[in-house]
User: What shape does this take?
Amino acid sequence: MSDGPAESATDAELARLASVNLNLLVPLLALLEERSVTRAAAKVGLSQPAMSHALRRMRRLLGDRLIVRQNNTMVLTPRATELLAPLRQTLHQTARIVDSRPFDPAADRRVVTVAMTSSTVLVIGNAIARLLADRAPHAVLRLRTMTMFPETVFTENGADVVLHSNAFATTLPRERLYDDRWVVIAGPDAPEDANATELLTTLPHVVFDGVPHRLLPYAVLDEQKIPYRVRHLVPDNLLIPQLVAGSGGVAVHRFRVATALRESLGLRIEEFPFPLHGLGINLTWNPWLYDDDFRTWLREILVEAAATLGPGTALPMDSPAREPAKPSAGVPRERVTHEGTSAVPLQKPSEGS
Assistant: This one.
């Protein structure tokens, strides 16, 4: 005897599943992730004809082409893109049901995917890699480098976590991993007696060609009516210090990136001469990642990696900061931040951060 509509609906869903060959879901996920019949077949241990047959059956079952050829590449249909994240989540949860052993990093063989910019890789990538190699020797670390972080970084790219600037807008929960700040960088041939403001006004600028540079500290320079000239636009922030050192230009960059490259490139580092909002790197978790034990463990790895960066509260030795220019009345005093840039415990950001 049925207890009501909810139970009837559940029974109907189970009856529907009973008529479906669920063994097709594993090759389907491989196909959606690899977007290649050959690579997907190798991934799950099937022959290429068997994988092609599985794709035909899934296309009939779902009423969708799933993957199609576009120019010289295979791309997912909108329906396949919607399926990817929940399918990955469902199969991973099913694997944990079948194998109920607790998460053991010493034995785990998963691919750990962390997405960040190339600049962030320079700052913290080595520390993450060392800790993972030590704590999870059989796991594989996959670093996804990108400048923008659309939701597809979780669905199509399969990122477990994204490390991104606190200026990056997202509707997903985020946590602060470590602090940073903006500084002025110049090459070794920059005038020795010039302060930061003079460097910014006299040398040609190298800026990131991804978002309008007015959205960066240049908005403050504009407010202060500080003249500057842009000479180079580059697609990767990590290239900016290289070009500054080689071309005799100037740039505004992250303190931690600048100090990491200071010795090898002969960079000169000065404090940015006007107040700016605090800068930092946050992390956002894949909303479909329900392996709580793994997420807790990886979070501890990231926090420990951030702790190795040190406080970063002062300019490097033998490169003293010159007297910064005083902000005019046009820049609100509440924008001034002088907190240290040490790694901090992860917290949910306050409203508007």
